Amino acid sequence: MSRADTMTDTDLTEVCRRALIDEAAAITGFASASGDDMARAARLIHGSTGPLIVAGIGKSGHIAGKIASTFRSIGKSAIFLHAAEASHGDLGLVARDSVVLILSNSGETTELSDLMHYCRVHENPVIALTSSTDTTLARTADITIAYGRVTEVCPNGLAPTTSTTLSLAIGDALSVGVTHLLGTAAEDFRRYHPGGKLGAMLLSVRDLMHTGDALPIVAPEAEMSETVVVMSEKSLGVAIVTDGPKVAGIITDGDMRRHAKDLWTSRAGDIATPDPISVLPETRAVDALQLMTDRKITACLVCNEDKSLAGLLHLHDCLRAGIVA
């Protein structure tokens, strides 16, 4: 009978849970014992004008690729360099002012030798992310972040698990530090993530609102027959009543139903709901959508600080953009 046949789901759940606990303990242990090496590394990366080169091979290479991607997300140019390919032409990726972050658990990976030699000759600063300060990589580096000899959580203690999790977490911590130094704000993330759900959630009302001739604007003295025509032409389900640049009110289908008896003898200003709900153009679209959902309305006025009309945001605009409240 194989081991798989003797393990219960309870046993397997405990094995998986223990792996998570042990990896979390390794991260917590490093965080408690770490010195200023990460701060020095973050400042070095922030101060460089060339792209950050993140290098590794094998499982460390996969982690290096993710770290480079994370730095690009915060607005710091970064490139993953496969350590073996570095010896076959890819050293050209290392710019004159590039900092090179090298990942290697053992710190003795032979494929790193050409890259390390290149950095030494061309005076590119090297940050080592490795297990020990007593390795060739650590002795070559300008800054060494050593997380210590760790026990891999795989049953044989061989497959890179705890060490790669630690490396990934440290890479994330460095990117967070550089984010603070760069002053990267939420609106910057949209610039680097224009597509996908993240990009959608960072859209502002200004990005989606209807403006100019697309707006169903009528004067307070407009007859309702004219107002209905404007509402139909613009297809936004409302009419905006303006008195000069300022908003005097808004007319919805509900307003017209409430005034059905005298609708065709009324003026727009008589029907409009005064002081309608509005948001600023800089408001996040997801927050405006939540407001519309909470207030059970399908459209929201967009007004500037001085209460002048800037545009109109419709519920469907948010949904088409992939925004979910």
If you had to describe this structure to a student in words, what would you say it looks like?
The protein has about 325 residues and is an alpha/beta fold. It folds into 2 domains: about 5-185, Rossmann fold (3-Layer(aba) Sandwich), CATH 3.40.50; about 205-320, CBS-domain, CATH 3.10.580. It is built from 16 helices and 11 strands. The protein has helices spanning about 5, 10-35, 35-45, 60-75, 85, 115-120, 135-140, 160-180, 185-190, 195-200, 205-210, 225-235, 255-260, 270, 285-295, 315-320, and strands at about 50-55, 80, 100-105, 125-130, 145, 215-220, 240-245, 245-250, 280, 300-305, 310-315. The strands form 3 sheets. The chain has a 5-stranded parallel β-sheet. A 3-stranded mixed β-sheet has the order 6-7-8. A 3-stranded mixed β-sheet has the order 9-10-11. β9, α15 (about 285-295) and β10 form a beta-alpha-beta unit. α3 packs across α8. The longest helix has 25 residues, at about 10-35. The protein is elongated. The protein starts with a helix and ends in a 5-residue tail after the last helix. The model has no long low-confidence stretch (mean pLDDT about 90).
In short:
The chain is of the alpha/beta class. 46% of the residues lie in helices and 16% in strands. Helix 15 links the parallel strand 9 and strand 10.
